[in-house]
């Protein structure tokens, strides 16, 4: 029995490390990847989202602090996202128990497809000067992203990073600020899930946390070495893939 638990721990640690490396470099995909995997193994959507948020409280903390150390965080952007994101996450976590996950896919799929295409188009046109301050609408963006992230088990980064990069902010500053804010949002969502659903499977959570924490510093360093246009291209492809995956799931 101990050997089976150890094997499960190592598998989830490997998944957590891979997901966190991608998430740290592109600013997205950890929650979506992890929640999708857990649901594919038969875990109910509410518990899958809870498990991911328990994990992200630690992994995003490590990633956010790594980005802060690497100089990738803008204080005003972080505060604008974190404050309203907490409110949205709390509302989403409390609603999730009674909300079918299919509704979330129906809302998110068109947005992901459109923003993915938009980002890809930005890579082939001449760029203007990058913004240094958060654009108008950043606070409401955090509210919506926090709400949908709590309901769907992921999507915070996909929504915030793509919207802010599309508005002309420097990708590495966006990614760093989003990750640090995500730590706060995940903590609030985790407390809500813990009070309503309980802890869940410790072997899954421990494995995802261990792998994600180990990989987080490497993602923060990687994003500093990727040119903004390349980061935008990779982010666009990732979001487009997420949208296609959601569309396929809806058609099944």
What are the SSEs and their pairings?
Blueprint: H1 2-26, H2 30-40, H3 45-69, H4 75-96, H5 101-122, H6 138-152, H7 156-166, H8 171-197, H9 202-224, H10 228-251
Helix pairs in contact: 1-2, 1-9, 2-3, 3-8, 3-9, 4-6, 4-8, 5-7, 5-10, 6-7, 7-8, 7-10
Key phrases:
0% strand, mainly alpha, 252 residues, globular
What does this structure look like?
The protein has 252 residues and is mainly alpha-helical. Helix content is 81%, strand content 0%. The longest helix has 27 residues. The radius of gyration is 17 Å and the shape is globular. The relative contact order is 0.24.
Summarize the structure.
By secondary structure, the protein is an all-alpha fold. It has helices at 2-26, 30-40, 45-69, 75-96, 101-122, 138-152, 156-166, 171-197, 202-224, 228-251.
Summed up, the helix count is 10
What is the residue-averaged pLDDT?
Answer: 79
Span of the ends, CA to CA: 36 Å
Number of domains: 1
Query: Low-confidence parts, pLDDT < 50 over ≥5 residues?
Result: none
Overall number of strands: 0
User: What is the radius of gyration?
Assistant: 17 Å
Strand content: under 5%
In percent, how helical is the residue content?
over 70%
Please tell me what the overall shape is.
Answer: globular
Structural class: mainly alpha
Largest sheet: none
Provide the succession of SSEs.
HHHHHHHHHH
């Amino acid at each position: 029995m101990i050997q089976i638990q150890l094997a499960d721990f190592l598998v989830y640690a490997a998944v957590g490390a891979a997901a966190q490396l991608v998430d740290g470099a592109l600013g997205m995909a950890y929650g979506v990847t992890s929640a999708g995997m857990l649901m594919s193994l038969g875990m109910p959507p509410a518990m899958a989202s809870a498990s991911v948020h328990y994990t992200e409280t630690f992994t995003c903390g490590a990633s956010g602090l790594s980005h802060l150390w690497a100089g990738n965080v803008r204080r005003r952007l972080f505060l604008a996202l974190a404050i309203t994101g907490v409110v949205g996450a709390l509302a989403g976590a409390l609603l999730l128990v009674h909300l079918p996950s299919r509704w979330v896919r129906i809302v998110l799929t068109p947005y992901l497809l459109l923003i993915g295409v938009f980002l890809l188009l930005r890579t082939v046109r001449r760029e203007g000067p990058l913004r240094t301050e958060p654009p108008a609408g950043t606070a409401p963006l955090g509210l919506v992203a926090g709400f949908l992230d709590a309901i769907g088990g992921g999507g915070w980064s996909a929504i915030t990073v793509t919207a802010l990069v599309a508005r002309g902010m420097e990708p590495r500053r966006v990614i760093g600020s989003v990750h640090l804010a995500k730590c706060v949002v995940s903590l609030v969502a985790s407390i809500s899930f813990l009070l309503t659903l309980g802890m869940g499977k410790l072997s899954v959570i421990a494995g995802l946390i261990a792998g994600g924490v180990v990989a987080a510093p490497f993602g923060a360093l990687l994003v500093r070495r990727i040119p903004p246009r390349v980061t935008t291209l990779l982010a666009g492809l990732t979001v487009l893939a997420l949208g296609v995956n959601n569309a396929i799931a809806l058609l099944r």
